Task: inverse folding
């Protein structure tokens, strides 16, 4: 009798455990198009900025700094010392600069506070008035040096949107946050954004996107 009870108890415990879900299929369903899998470690390059010389001339300092920055991103504002001179600030990333290259495919990013507990994902978007739509898979990388400008190549490979131009980007940490109803669970932020966008596109229902926005763990950049 005791043996039978033990077997029954073990069976109940096994039945009550949720199997771990792969992040790329966490919301897969035949009722909507699933996005491409995340590329966790894209090929990225970085440029280390250097401060100006001891000269008090502002022009001399700018020339020294610009000489280390590729011509394709010299139209943006970068920090030469990793402490000051960043273009923008947001509670999600701190002080940062996100810039689109003149080739319209590469995006470069520099942050004041290195992000060591997760990767940062950049998702290409296309804007139309006050609205936007994601047009390609997230590209994720580690950002560990405040003096380094990291380059990420974006792809417009979402089915049905391959001919759209990249005019903006969603930038967010690849971390799980608790999203309210209708999610009502912890979800990795890039997954939450992709799912809400697909649900809105498929069913014209903005409830998931409203929940995503309410948490505020992202930066939206218009180029």
Result:
């Amino acid at each position: 009798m005791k043996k039978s009870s033990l077997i029954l108890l073990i069976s109940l415990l096994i039945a009550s455990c949720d199997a771990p879900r792969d992040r790329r299929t966490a919301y897969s369903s035949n009722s909507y198009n699933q996005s491409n899998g995340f590329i966790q470690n894209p090929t990225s390059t970085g440029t280390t900025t250097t401060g100006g010389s001891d000269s008090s001339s502002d022009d001399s300092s700018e020339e020294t700094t610009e000489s280390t920055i590729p011509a394709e991103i010299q139209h943006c504002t970068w920090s030469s010392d990793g402490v000051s001179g960043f273009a923008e600030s947001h509670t999600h990333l701190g002080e940062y600069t996100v810039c689109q290259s003149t080739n319209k495919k590469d995006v470069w990013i520099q942050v004041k506070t290195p992000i060591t507990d997760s990767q940062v994902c950049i998702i290409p978007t296309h804007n139309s008035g006050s609205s936007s739509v994601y047009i390609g898979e997230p590209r994720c990388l580690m950002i560990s040096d405040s003096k380094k400008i990291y380059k990420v190549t974006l792809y417009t490979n979402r089915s049905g949107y391959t001919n759209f131009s990249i005019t903006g980007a969603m930038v967010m940490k690849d971390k799980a946050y608790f999203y309210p109803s209708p999610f009502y669970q912890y979800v990795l932020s890039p997954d939450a954004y992709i799912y809400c966008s697909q649900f809105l596109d498929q069913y014209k229902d903005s409830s998931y996107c409203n929940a995503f926005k309410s948490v505020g763990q992202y930066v939206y950049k218009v180029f």
User: Anything to note?
Assistant: The radius of gyration is 22 Å.
